[in-house]
């Protein structure tokens, strides 16, 4: 199967992986013909995707279409049955500090404070204790948690826990941030806050992000490119470059392109597979 | 104007109707305590009445007053304290040996699939062998002094603890382990810094439960062959028909078990308060 057949359902706005906002040169993440099976279930079938350096890519699709599996494979937490994944030109065989992961449920260690959780991630850096403390403080402040350094996860709301998790992942400056429905468990208002925060953080840090979500508007609002996946077997149906100006914010939702993108993507998700 | 005042609420609404208690609904702490105390009071009253009115032979069941008097006498002549001290010492050594050995093995079994396959079925099998049946064997092996008491407590708690600790480790969320991997931590680091602390509250619970059992095994061992300790005192009391001593010591044993359990519970609540709140 070739890309063009895979993406036959994509509208005119869709472009191959290397087009759109992506600059030339070797991709930061290259996924080649990746297949992953779980017994009878083919979670991913011959998936091809490349992500440019400092690009923000979202994966959307119905539940069970393999988004988490693909993210785990990039993270090195899972391995493909066929195909290869290359990050920064090197084949992925295991997880590493070049790729930070934010899980759907903030995996904060409950016996450590917010500060302690961030410092925990900084243990791998060559830092003195004082440097580690300052670095953790600084990154917590960046996600708006000044004054909550000493709070334990059980004392924080879901949104604040995700902020700590984000701070933890940013603290050791990975090249790539992999986020699996990080705001999926939050209420709508908190989610909007977190989207703003993420846009803000990304526009300042400019790191490569692969972001899984089932919220189409969230994907359009934040991403440079939205990758639409379809289930059974999991594959990529289309890639949609998002033509919205940066910096983005609430005002981006007003742009006519925003509605058009969201509408197109929804249609692609609901379309039945061509074959 | 007065006729314009709003209609007074109906009398029924003035006194709130009491809602029937929902299935599984809890009592307030005060009501709980009062009810619990009432149970004890009623039970002691029945016991006292049965003996005071001569319904049972005091030789078989002395009254609570007689039991308490006997205990006070034994406390005053020091016998009660020395018996408790000997038994507590044996519990501590036996239980500590079992725990120190069960910890690494349990963590290994919980974290490593090969260790689990190699050891879990075996330990599951051993744990169903009745501890009591080991008493004669342990006497042949190590005699009747303290070492035999340690061994019985060890047999009674080691295998159980290994299984419970392994289970506690298996309950650690996979995502915690994955977090460690994405942070570039090695297996040993993940085990020591993530898995073990994460499992610790449950491990503590396992230890608390096993400590309760340790008392049973100790008394069994002391009843069969000992020259000191709570079980030994009960055994000699039987020879002299000193039912007041027997009942008094049984009550003290129950009380000691309860106190140890409550102390460990309180310590656990303190040590793991953030972890418990999170889960
Ligand atoms: N560890 C696993 N074992 C068995 N099946 C799995 C496993 N992980 C994922 N799957 C299956 O693979 C498919 C894709 O799952 P997933 O990647 O979690 O989808 P998504 O994140 O898009 O909802 C689903 O059908 C799921 O049931
Ligand atoms: Mg998922």
Automatic annotation (TrEMBL), chain A:
Q: Does this UniProt record's set of keywords contain ATP-binding?
A: yes
Task: Give GO terms: molecular function aspect only.
Answer: ATP binding; ATP hydrolysis activity
Q: Where is the composition biased (Low complexity)?
A: 8-24
Kindly state which keywords UniProt assigns to this record, in alphabetical order: ATP-binding, Nucleotide-binding, Transport
Which Pfam family, giving just one, matches this sequence? ABC_tran
Region of interest (Disordered), residue spans: 1-24
The ABC transporter domain sits at 29-256
Q: What is this protein called?
A: ABC transporter ATP-binding protein
Which species is listed as the source?
Ruicaihuangia caeni
Q: Could you read off the lineage of the organism from its UniProt record?
A: Bacteria, Bacillati, Actinomycetota, Actinomycetes, Micrococcales
Automatic annotation (TrEMBL), chain B:
Q: Where is the ABC transmembrane type-1 domain?
A: 84-264
Q: Where in the cell is it found?
A: Cell membrane
Q: What does the entry list under GO cellular component?
A: plasma membrane
PANTHER family for the chain: ABC TRANSPORTER PERMEASE PROTEIN MJ0413-RELATED, ALKANE SULFONATE ABC TRANSPORTER-RELATED, MEMBRANE SUBUNIT
| Protein name stated in the entry | ABC transporter permease
What are the recorded Gene Ontology BP terms? alkanesulfonate transmembrane transport
Where does the record place Low complexity bias? 1-15
Spans traversing the lipid bilayer: 32-56, 91-113, 125-144, 150-169, 210-234, 246-264
* Gene3D superfamilies assigned: MetI-like
């Amino acid at each position: 199967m070739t890309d063009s057949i895979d993406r036959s359902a994509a509208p005119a706005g869709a472009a191959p992986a290397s087009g759109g906002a992506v600059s030339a040169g070797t991709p930061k993440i290259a996924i080649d013909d990746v297949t992953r099976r779980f017994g009878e279930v083919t979670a991913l079938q011959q998936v091809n995707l490349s992500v440019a350096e400092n690009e923000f890519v979202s994966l959307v699709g119905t539940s069970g279409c393999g988004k988490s599996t693909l993210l785990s494979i990039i993270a090195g937490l899972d391995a493909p049955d066929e195909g290869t994944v290359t990050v920064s030109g090197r084949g992925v065989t295991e997880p590493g500090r070049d790729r930070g992961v934010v899980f759907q449920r903030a995996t904060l260690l409950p016996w450590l404070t917010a500060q302690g959780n961030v410092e925990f991630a900084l243990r791998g850096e060559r830092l003195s204790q004082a440097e580690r403390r300052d670095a953790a403080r600084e990154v917590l402040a960046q996600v708006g948690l000044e004054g909550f350094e000493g709070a334990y996860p059980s004392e924080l709301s879901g949104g604040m826990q995700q902020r700590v998790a984000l701070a933890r992942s940013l603290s050791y400056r990975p090249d790539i941030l992999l986020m699996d429905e990080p705001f999926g468990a939050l209420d709508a208002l908190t989610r909007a806050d977190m989207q703003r925060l993420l846009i803000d953080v990304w526009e300042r840090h400019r790191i490569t992000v692969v972001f899984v979500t089932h919220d189409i508007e969230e994907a359009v609002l934040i991403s440079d490119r939205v990758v639409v996946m379809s289930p059974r077997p999991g594959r990529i149906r289309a890639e949609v470059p998002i033509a919205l100006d940066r910096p983005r914010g609430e005002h981006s939702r007003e742009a006519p392109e925003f509605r058009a993108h969201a509408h197109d993507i929804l249609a692609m998700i609901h379309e039945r597979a061509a074959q | 104007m007065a006729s314009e005042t709003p209609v007074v609420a109906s009398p029924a609404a003035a006194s709130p109707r009491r809602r029937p208690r929902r299935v599984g609904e809890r009592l307030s702490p005060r009501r709980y305590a009062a009810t619990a105390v009432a149970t004890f009071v009623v039970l002691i009253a029945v016991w006292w009445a049965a003996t005071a009115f001569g319904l049972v032979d005091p030789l078989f069941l002395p009254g609570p007053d007689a039991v308490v008097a006997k205990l006070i006498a034994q406390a005053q002549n020091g016998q009660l304290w020395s018996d408790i001290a000997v038994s507590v010492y044996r519990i501590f050594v036996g239980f500590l040996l079992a725990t120190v050995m069960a910890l690494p093995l349990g963590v290994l079994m919980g974290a490593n699939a090969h260790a689990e396959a190699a050891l879990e079925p075996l330990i599951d099998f051993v744990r169903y062998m009745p501890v009591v049946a080991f008493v004669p064997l342990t006497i042949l092996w190590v005699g009747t002094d303290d070492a035999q008491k340690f061994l019985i407590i060890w047999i009674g708690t080691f295998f159980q603890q290994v299984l419970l600790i392994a289970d506690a480790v298996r309950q650690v969320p996979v995502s915690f382990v994955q977090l460690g991997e994405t942070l570039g931590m090695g297996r040993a680091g993940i085990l020591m810094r993530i898995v073990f602390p994460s499992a610790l509250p449950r491990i503590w619970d396992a230890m608390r439960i096993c400590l309760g059992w340790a008392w049973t095994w100790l008394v069994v061992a002391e009843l069969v062959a000992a020259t000191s300790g709570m079980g030994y005192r009960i055994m000699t009391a039987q020879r002299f028909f000193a039912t007041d001593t027997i009942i008094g010591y049984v009550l003290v044993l129950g009380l000691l078990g309860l106190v140890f359990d409550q102390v460990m519970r309180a310590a656990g609540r303190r040590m793991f308060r953030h972890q418990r709140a999170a889960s």
